[in-house]
Design a protein that fits this description.
The N terminus is likely disordered. The longest helix is centred in the first third of the chain and has 20 residues. Helix 3 packs across helix 5, helix 3 crosses helix 7 and helix 7 packs antiparallel against helix 8. With 148 residues, the protein is mainly α. The chain has a single domain, classed as Globin-like (Orthogonal Bundle).
Length: 148
């Protein structure tokens, strides 16, 4: 009983500390990126950047001839990015390892993808802190994508 009370007290204290540090001005990364509308615009511009990037466009151009598959991948990307940035969106796609298995993506290709994404964030005037947060997410996914 004493352990349960201690755990309960710690949870209450933690909640009180969190309530004090989180102000109404605190926004999730999802909100800072413009919510669904902002993330959709970012994803669309990233796709365009990938299509125009001669170092990686061979991986993306074939989807132009598969509009239904392209639309599905686009939506999964929007949903994945939304969920990963704190949005209350449901992601129904596969995990990153399963999705990229057999693609043999190199570290260099991954860096080009990251560069395209960071360039688009700059074009969208995303603040530095949010860009750092996106970069951290991208970096955390690296192992699930490269050479799978």
């Amino acid at each position: 009983m004493k352990k349960q009370f201690t755990l309960f007290a710690l949870l209450i204290i933690n909640s009180m500390i969190s309530a004090q540090t989180l102000t109404p001005e605190t926004k999730t990364l999802f909100e800072r990126l413009g919510g669904t509308k902002g993330i959709t615009a970012i994803v669309d511009d990233v796709i365009e950047a990938h299509m125009n990037n001669p170092e990686i466009n061979a991986r993306f151009i074939p989807y132009q001839d598969q509009p239904e598959r392209f639309a599905k991948i686009r939506q999964h990307t929007i949903d994945f990015f939304s969920v990963g940035s704190g949005g209350s969106v449901e992601y129904n796609g596969r995990d990153m390892t399963t999705t990229h298995t057999g693609m043999n993506i190199s570290a260099a290709e991954y860096m080009y993808v990251m560069d395209d994404i960071m360039g688009v964030l700059k074009e969208h005037n995303i603040d530095e802190e949010s860009k750092k947060d996106v970069l951290a997410i991208l970096w955390s996914l690296k192992g699930a994508i490269i050479s799978k």
